[in-house]
Amino acid sequence: MQIGFQLEMEARKIKMPQPKLWTWPFIFLILANLFTFMSFQMLLPNLPPYIESIGGSSLQVGLITTMFAFAAIIIRPFIGHLLMTRPRKILVLIGAISLLVMTALYPITQVVVILLIIRFIHGIAWGWSTTVNGTAAVDLVPRRRVGEGMGYFGLSVTVGMIMAPSLGIYLYQNYSFDLLVGIAAALGIIAILLFSVTRFVTPEQVYKNQEDPPRFSFTGSLIEKRSWYPALVTILNTFGYGSVVTYIVIFGNEQGLTGTFLFYFFNAVFATITRPVTGRYFDKNGPWKLIMICSFISFGAMWVLALASSNVHLIIAGALFGIGFGSMMPALQAWVISKTTTERSGIANGMYYSSIDLGIGSSAFILGFIYQFVETATLFKLSSFLFLFVLLLTILDYRKQTEPWVAPE
Fold it and tell me: Terminal CA-to-CA distance of the chain, rounded, Å?
């Protein structure tokens, strides 16, 4: 009788319908986050050559990214703590409006020092916005479908990170920096409108915490100890991306390549095509094998890019990078979130985005020094080996697993 009852319960679990993922709030949030990332990412690859064009040094080119990343990192512990006590919508809107204001300020000066200050404050706004937006997505996604749900949400990040730079490069190279900033600001306004009509979900524990606020700890709000390992992998993973986003336009100019935007375009296309498959694979099998394969593909993409001598090579490199890096990022975010509790998902999510900024920022800073002595292609070759470290760390963690992967409830 007991065995029969257990078998019946197992059968019910198997037949249990999947919780609904595609709700209007989730769709609006994805679209709003897409426009947020597009607004930001349009500027990212164009700021280094713009700084050079107004007389900035190679060190200042690196600082424009490093200072931004540092600002985003230091603000996130405070945002993580706020997310434990404040409703989502007001925090999301504050972040989106702040980003719009800082974006609009770039054309007002050509003094590099003032631009660095603007960039630092922009980093604070970015750290705020990415943390609260990602946490709002976690609140809307059923825990049993976190890999798939965050994979789709991650598309707004990946497509923004990949497609917007190609548009930004085209506008900067063919029109002007002022027009580029104007269009980026317009996208920011669209994002604010979409956030305004989105119905957010705030966990019940947040309202309980308002009555008895948890004690603030900078390190406790910066680091989710249970998620430190995938966060470390994320840092290494984004180091390679940092070299691309900082130097690909400069590389294209050096090599006489007119189709730099093609790298980003095909990156976005292939990241979008593979995302539904990789998201479901994560929920079923966990992150390890997926990240192993994708890190090796990303390593190959970096070498194709470094050796590129035609637009065809840029297309191949972009496609490979979209499959590899484009699939790894949402998998890493889902891995970070899956290792923590719902209450601390905001802190874990903030740590994930801080890992991205730390990887990109340290890449720009370190490579900014090396750039004084080597060709840009060499920077891509050097940073490619970080993807092999990602592969190694993932293999080591996979070997420690003693039980089959189970998607979080």
Answer: 28
